[in-house]
Amino acid sequence: MMKDKKIDSKVWPTLITLGNLFCGFLAISYIADEKILAAAWLIFLGMIFDMFDGKVARMTNGSSDFGVQLDSLADMISFGVAPAFLMKTFIVTEDFLWSQKIVWGVCLFFVICSAVRLAKFNVDTDENDSHTYFYGLATPAAAGVLASLVLVAKTVSIGIYIPENTYKISLMITTVLLGFLMISQVRYLHAGAFLLRKRSIFIQIIIYASLLALVIFYFSLITVLLCSGFLIYTISGVANELKIRSNAKGDDLARA
């Protein structure tokens, strides 16, 4: 009877993780059909599943090594392969000036860094860790930057303000930088744990329902704010790391 109860406690977090995996697969399918906007939003939907599976596992005492490995596999699809494929499909058009091989290489680099980041997290992270901070940009955050930049380009007509090829080249550079940040030792606040901390499931559902309503009624504004949020989060980790190193260097000089 106890064994059955333990198995049941793992069902809900597993289903939520599989929801993330489903979003990643569906995003890739939509990208193949050139449904770029829908694919980008599916990546964000996958993030919501990813934020909740760990919390539900802890609430139901359903945490397990199996769940950790399954979560990483789902993340690899949703936040490694899907955003890289999204970027490749968005960038490579008939009027793009650079070789497709360069774009493929950049996107492959992002996928490789995502795999390394996830594997490193699984090896280095203890089950009892507080997860307040991560070392290296998390794959969902990196995927969020790319997906939001594509959303902005599609919804705000970015070509009016920036030449299309210039924007695409900047996206390629951003993709490479995100790859390096994922495998770096730059420390980042665990945004998911911070947002969900000390809030009931009911309150969290209200928050996300409100955000969904804002997306529906203020689509362009929300995409810009979403993109800004991911970029600020990514840059904040680098800025904080530079500040820490600068302070450490100052302390060393003071001792000398």
List the topology elements.
Elements: H1 2-32, H2 36-59, H3 65-91, H4 100-124, E1 133-135, H5 139-155, H6 164-182, E2 187-189, H7 191-196, H8 201-217, H9 219-255
Antiparallel strand pairs: 1-2
Describe the protein:
This protein is mainly alpha-helical. The chain has one domain: Up-down Bundle (Four Helix Bundle (Hemerythrin (Met), subunit A)), CATH 1.20.120. The protein is built from nine helices and two strands. It has helices spanning 2-32, 36-59, 65-91, 100-124, 139-155, 164-182, 191-196, 201-217, 219-255, and strands at residues 133-135, 187-189. Strands 1-2 form a two-stranded antiparallel sheet. Helix 2 runs antiparallel to helix 3 and helix 5 (139-155) crosses helix 9 (219-255). The chain is globular, with a radius of gyration of 19 Å.
Summarize this entry quickly.
The chain has about 260 residues and is mostly helical. The chain has helices spanning about 1-30, 35-60, 65-90, 100-125, 140-155, 165-180, 190-195, 200-215, 220-255, and strands at about 135, 185-190.
